[in-house]
Amino acid sequence: MTRPLLTSALAGMGTTIFAEMSALAVETGAVNLGQGFPDTDGPIEIAQAAADAVLSGRGNQYPPGPGIPELRSAISGHQKRFYGLDVDPETEVLVTAGATEAIAAALLALLEPGDEVIALEPYYDSYAACIAMAGATRVPVTLRAPAFRPDLDALRDAITGRTRLILLNTPHNPTGMVATREELAAIAELAIKHDLLVITDEVYEHLVFDGEHIPIATLPGMRERTVTISSAGKTFSFTGWKIGWVTGTPELVKAVRTAKQFLTYVSGGPFQYAIAAGLALPDAFYADLAAGLHRKRDVLAAGLRAAGFEVFLPQGTYFITTDIAPLGESDGLAFCRRLPYRCGVVAVPNAVFYDHPQAGRTQVRFAFCKRDEVLADAAARLAGLTVTPPGPPAEAG
Ligand SMILES: Cc1ncc(COP(=O)(O)O)c(C=O)c1O
């Protein structure tokens, strides 16, 4: 075989590091703060609704391609309730196999080989993979510590005649940056001026502690050029159910649906009923979710600071990005490979989320969507970090 396989271009990306770090966590019995999933399930009434759907035979056979009407209506209601957006459940909503499929289907549908996509790096690893699978080129605009604000001049400079779309993620994984109205307005102005599409990944929309989540689709002139993606996984703490969705104009949603049809066609029938019920939960549910995670963020941040990390306090999401330079460390990947041996905690190096790994070389990400006792345990273990431990093998790093 003479031509390199596409997979060789994807192999170094984040997913491989999650597998490696999770295996290390199992091997060493470490507290796993690597991958972002909660260690408690979501509301019992949503779980019950899924069980009821299975047992009463709702959704056990292929659901409709765009998603069951109940869920599409609930998604439309959610967009109206939280953002004042009018979304037609018939033509402007598509249910997907998690946000991950929505991202893949949107990029495959909207990109042609040779197109350029501007994305804020560090980025969620599926972006780079899906842009590559669409035959397009990613053009990173780097978010820099300590605040990780979007560099609007760099974004402007990144636009060329081949730019097709801007891929946004707010609240942003892994930095926890939440884009402001002014930043979004500047991005919108560029998108309109250069006739670009925007795909916006808003899976952490309800996990905001400082600031406010603003969908870019709510800005003037943006509804018609924006594909908005979200997911039930983070909002309802059922990440394994993989119920996500896309909203946008009928034309854009139809394009995404055409690609989605040949990826999974449909998925998660009974879970769709359950998430429709979840989306009807009162505002207090959403407020409590954010308040609980806010507290967890502060607990882990305090533990990390006490252990000597520089902490970049996130405005939203499940994640805290830290800098390990104050610990005398210079390589996040090597540090993360040794950390379970040194103190029994697993984290992930942010470098894997960058095209320019140098930019994130000393950054390490910790997830705080864990039970209080797990976070307390992790903080206690991290406190022992400076103590020389009984031997990680030197080659482990
Ligand atoms: C930014 C971002 N987008 C999308 C996803 C995937 O969402 P889902 O589990 O619904 O596919 C994640 C999950 O970690 C994420 O962090």
Question: TL;DR of this structure?
Answer:
The chain is of the alpha/beta class. It contains 14 helices and 13 strands. The chain has a seven-stranded mixed sheet with strand order 2-8-7-6-5-3-4, sandwiched between helices. Strands 9-10-13-12 form a four-stranded antiparallel sheet.
Characterization of the model:
The protein is of the alpha/beta class. The chain has 14 helices and 13 strands. Helix 2 packs parallel to helix 13. It starts with 5 loop residues before the first helix and ends in a 14-residue tail after the last helix. The relative contact order is 0.17. Bound molecules: pyridoxal-5'-phosphate (PLP). The site of pyridoxal-5'-phosphate has 14 residues, from helix 5. Pyridoxal-5'-phosphate (PLP) binds next to helix 5.
Number of strands: 13
Give the DSSP E fraction (strand runs of 2 or more residues): 5-15%
- Average pLDDT taken over every residue: 94
For the termini, the CA-CA separation is 33 Å
Largest pleated sheet: 7 strands, mixed
Small molecules (ligands, ions, cofactors) in the structure: pyridoxal-5'-phosphate
Global shape = globular
Percent helix among the residues?
40-55%
Order of strands, main sheet, comes to 2-8-7-6-5-3-4
Using only C-alpha atoms, the radius of gyration works out to 21 Å
What is the count of DSSP helices, taking H or I runs of 4+ residues? 14
Order of helices and strands: HHEHHEHEHEHEHEEHEHHHEEHEEEH
SS-based class: alpha/beta
Give the low-pLDDT segments.
387-391
